[in-house]
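tokens incoming
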């Protein structure tokens, strides 16, 4: 495939201008136009919509589809350049969901970064469903996810069970020793995050799913930022709650009828190179070391 043409296309896509793309690539505008034309001929379709009398550059529908492939090509090219620079070094690309990367896996990542001989590491954060797709495309070597999915080329195994707890703003009336009945919690004071089907089923037994007086959030970080008075509450995994409590702003409370524990999974592709197997053996070694502290 025309590497120079893809670089020109990506530059145009990023700056929305042939002239600025030429400046970024340190070539003439005519060269950028020629490279783009050669790429379009190779692809058999128009990628960039050219309008006379306007400086605005837009992608055609064909160009929008190609942009996804071009971005993956850019990442692969970058990985190749890194491999050439570092030489015969074990490489490992790890994907994880936001809450796992932030609140569970940082000790594992720290241990991997300190490993001798040095590993070439890359980390990615995506939703669990996206991570399975990324793993199937072999863009990552291992994924840490919050849901199990049965796929023919993917091996999935549990690596950590995270109990669910109540997190409250630290105030005299909120004592860490308290065990609360879920019925005593007002829905209007809730910061609600859906932790999965089992959690949602438990939640619906206590609160009317049609009652939308709560505040919905899609990341645990938002709970940390927005939970700011004594009446507010949220249910989060214990690993997340422990990280919150370190700030001194929150307390952990237990529920008399808690939701099911969250099971976290490690997923890998069944077809692995010898080098990837070696890198994963190192990862598994450090995983065993962090499992006990996580479970306490």
């Amino acid at each position: 495939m025309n590497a120079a043409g893809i670089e020109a296309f990506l530059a145009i896509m990023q700056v929305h201008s042939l002239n600025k793309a030429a400046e970024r690539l340190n070539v003439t505008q005519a060269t950028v136009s020629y490279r783009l034309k050669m790429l379009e001929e190779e692809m058999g379709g128009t990628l960039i919509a050219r309008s006379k009398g306007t400086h605005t550059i837009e992608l055609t529908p064909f160009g929008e589809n190609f942009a996804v492939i071009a971005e993956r090509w850019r990442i692969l090219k970058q990985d190749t350049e890194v491999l050439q620079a570092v030489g015969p070094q074990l490489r490992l690309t790890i994907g994880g969901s936001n809450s796992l990367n932030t609140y569970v896996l940082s000790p594992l990542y720290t241990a991997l970064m300190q490993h001798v001989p040095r590993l070439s590491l890359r980390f990615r954060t995506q939703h669990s469903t996206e991570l399975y797709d990324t793993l199937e495309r072999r863009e990552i070597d291992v994924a840490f996810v919050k849901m199990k999915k049965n796929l023919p080329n993917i091996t999935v195994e549990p690596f950590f069970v995270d109990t669910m707890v109540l997190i409250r703003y630290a105030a005299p009336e909120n004592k860490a020793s308290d065990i609360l009945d879920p019925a005593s919690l007002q829905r209007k004071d809730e910061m609600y995050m859906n932790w999965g089907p089992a959690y949602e089923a438990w939640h619906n037994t206590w609160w009317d799913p049609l009652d939308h007086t709560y505040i919905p959030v899609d990341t645990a970080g938002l709970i940390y930022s927005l939970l700011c008075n004594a009446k507010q509450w949220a249910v989060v995994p214990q690993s997340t709650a422990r990280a919150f409590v370190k700030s001194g702003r929150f307390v952990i409370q237990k529920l008399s009828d808690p939701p099911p524990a969250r099971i976290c999974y490690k997923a890998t592709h069944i077809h692995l190179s010898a080098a990837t197997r070696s890198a994963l053996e190192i990862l598994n070694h450090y995983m065993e070391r962090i499992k006990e502290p996580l479970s306490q």
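note: Residues 3-83 form a domain with the Arc Repressor Mutant, subunit A fold (CATH 1.10.10.10).
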